[in-house]
Design brief:
By secondary structure, this protein is of the alpha/beta class. The protein has 10 helices and 12 strands. It has a 6-stranded mixed β-sheet. α5 links the parallel β7 and β8. It is globular and about 60 Å long. The termini are far apart. It binds 2'-monophosphoadenosine-5'-diphosphate. 2'-monophosphoadenosine-5'-diphosphate binds next to α5.
Length: 276
């Protein structure tokens, strides 16, 4: 008899992750004998956890905050993930833990659906953490013109230096000016996330009507930033649910080699968010 396959997410905190609900819905839809669980693991215990997972025959893992960068040390990672400096997916299928980063892939899929061709687009990314890094790197590969705006300008400058055509700015006057010159604005910080739902780094009066506004925060689905975007009447508004679903779907495919049931996964996430 085949044993049930076990997948999971490592993070700290991780109790509120929607990945279990999303992946379990996919397993159920495809009739797979598999389960996806959340494991709270500290940075100090990460190496043991990954080794232990391999010994226990766990099939695949996601890693999330604050483990994405450190996890790279304990896996054999794909080149892109090494360049980004972070992973969010581990596959144990080949015996050796293999690391991947599907955050960037997820965001590109979302942007291509909403904007189409990204080459030559002026994209302003707010943030310089793990999520910003993955998005910036993929946008760079797509040929977009990337500007990184971060509270700590130095961090943005360090990231920009790894992408040959990116600029780095702070969140002051030059930020306001750059928004006016941008086609796409992406919030890749945690600003606006529950329980700080009234926070935003950009208000309606800073936006313009040809702007696409994308927030990677998905809890709440309509963040203050997106409310402001609505008020400004911007061209397109993209919430964080799709990115969560697409990065999850990309991980699912790596682990199972099956076509992920995207709509079922998205519904599981939106239902869970609505019942919170
Ligand atoms: P992650 O890996 O999830 O992206 P991170 O590495 O902690 O997380 O990065 C969080 C990002 O949100 C950073 O860009 C951070 O800015 P700093 O580099 O200046 O710390 C940004 N951020 C978090 N809270 C913020 C706030 N209240 N105002 C502005 N930026 C904020």
């Amino acid at each position: 008899m085949m044993m049930k396959k076990i997948y999971g997410i490592l993070g700290d905190p991780v109790a509120h992750s929607l990945s279990p609900v999303m992946h379990n819905a996919a397993f159920e839809k495809l009739g797979m004998d598999a389960v996806y669980l959340a494991f709270r693991v500290s940075k100090a215990e990460l190496e043991d956890a990954i080794r232990g997972a391999k010994s226990l025959g766990i099939a695949g893992l996601n890693v999330t905050i604050p483990l994405k960068e450190k996890a790279l040390l304990f896996v054999d990672a794909e080149e892109v993930a090494k360049k980004i400096g972070a992973i969010n997916t581990i596959d144990f299928g080949s015996g050796t833990p293999m690391g991947y980063n599907t955050d960037g892939i997820g965001s590109m899929q979302v942007l291509k659906e909403t904007v189409g061709e990204l080459k030559g687009e002026n994209v302003l990314i707010i943030g310089a953490g793990g999520a910003a890094k993955a998005i910036a790197f993929y946008l760079y590969l797509e040929g977009a013109k990337v500007t990184l705006a971060n509270r700590t300008k130095e961090r943005a400058a360090q990231l920009a230096a790894t992408l040959s055509n990116a600029d780095a700015i702070g969140l002051g006057a030059e930020f306001k000016k750059q928004i006016k010159a941008s086609d796409i604005l992406i919030n890749a910080t945690s600003v606006g996330m529950h329980p700080h739902e009234d926070a935003t780094l950009v208000n309606a009066d800073m936006m313009h009507q040809d702007l696409v506004v994308f927030d990677i925060v998905y809890n709440p689905v309509e963040t203050k930033l997106l409310k402001e975007a609505k008020r400004a009447g911007v061209k397109k508004i993209v919430d964080g649910v799709k990115m969560l679903v697409y990065q999850g779907a990309a991980s699912f495919k790596i682990w199972t080699k099956e076509e992920p049931p995207i709509e079922v996964m998205e519904k599981a996430v939106t239902d869970a968010l609505a019942s919170e």
